[in-house]
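Record 1 of the preview.
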Amino acid sequence: MKNLKMKAARVQKDYSQKDLAQIVGVTRQTIGMIETNKFNPSLQLCLSICRALDKTLNDLFWEENDNEKI
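->
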């Protein structure tokens, strides 16, 4: 499952993957891999991405599953 929420937030800010990568201090490839769920970022990186995109952890990284109650 792709991280479409993160990609949508990035596009809404008019950031390329490279732009966001530079802001948070990683490579463009890392951002691409996060968006395609091929890389599990650290909590620190998630927080940096959230700050850069003006979003919360829940906005970008919480997966909703209607069949499962936590």
